[in-house]
Amino acid sequence: MNIFITGATSGFGKAIAEKFAVPGNQLWITGRRADRLEAIKKDLEENKGVTVTVSTLDVRDKAAVAALADTVKQQWRTIDLLVNNAGLALGMSSIEEGDTDDWDTMIDTNVKGLLYVTRAIAPLMRAQRSGHIINIGSTAGKVAYQNGNVYCATKFAVDALSQTMRIDLLPYNIKVTAINPGMAETEFSIVRFKGNETQAQKTYEGFLPLRAEDIADAVYYCATLPPHVCINDMTITCTQQANSIYKVSR
Ligand code: NDP
Ligand code: 8X3
Question: Which protein residue's CA is at the shortest distance from atom 46 of ligand 1?
Fold first, then answer.
């Protein structure tokens, strides 16, 4: 399989790269941090016997995304799996106090970045009449939570895009799967709270959150089913998390 992953420098993306690192697979891993990409490539090529290509990529850079997709097309000719994983939350404020620059970054990355990558790679899948796109959504894209406002909105958008992409790409035999994780301990909260590790750790205090590897296992399962089977949507929480009822202000 030829597998292209965005946001592979940490968390889910890195775990997904590691999970798919088996002989016979070729990985193309991307993210903004070049040093991390090189370290992952070295590890996987030396220890897992796979070929790993790395490209620094900011998914918000439309021209860079299009140029990289051209390179992928020339080098690989075919692509089996695109994992749209790059994304982030920034801050957790009530709507009237939100940082509008943070809003821009979340929308540009989680929604527009995912769109740019999909727009650039999907034609290759259409031409080959096969392929699989896995979008990493969130439980935050299923049920909104207090102070989640814009992050939740971006993940609701990912949910809507996954649904419509599946319909649009149906004639071309392309699968689209949305994986919606609940709380998982990655670098997500460190990023959200802008390097405040104490605050990040508090997010996962008192319960056992998901691990990145749990989500990688789910992605691997969805991606290795027979050609006629497409998981549309998978919502995964740790055992100690569940949906809640409407909040009341007393
Ligand atoms: P991490 O912070 O560990 O990983 C995020 C990844 O996204 C990094 O590799 C980062 O790479 C990359 N990224 C961020 N911005 C950009 C950008 N502009 N261009 C390219 N890559 C970018 O968090 P997670 O692994 O937890 O997050 C992965 C995805 O999962 C995100 O979409 C997140 O919203 C979603 N998610 C996370 C959950 C959680 O609780 N952890 C639950 C549900 C969904 P780099 O900084 O090198 O560019
Ligand atoms: C990440 C899960 O609940 O921290 O998408 O927003 S949550």
Answer: 32
> Which domain does 64 fall in, by range?
2-236
Q: Is the CB of 153 under 6 A from ligand 2?
A: no
CATH number at residue 109: 3.40.50.720
Supply the pLDDT for residue 77: 96
Can you point out the beta strands (E) in 182-223? none
Is this prediction's ipTM beyond 0.95?
yes
- The number of distinct structural domains making up the chain is 1
250 is a domain residue: no
pTM score > 0.90 for this model? yes
List pLDDT tens digits, range 109-141. 999 999 999 999 999 999 999 999 999 999 999
The 3-state DSSP composition of the chain as helix, strand, coil percent (nearest 5) reads: 50, 15, 35
Closest C-alpha among 195, 118, 107 to residue 152: 107
Active site residue 151: yes
148 lines ligand 1 (CB under 6 A): no
Catalytic pick from 145, 151, 220, 246? Answer: 151
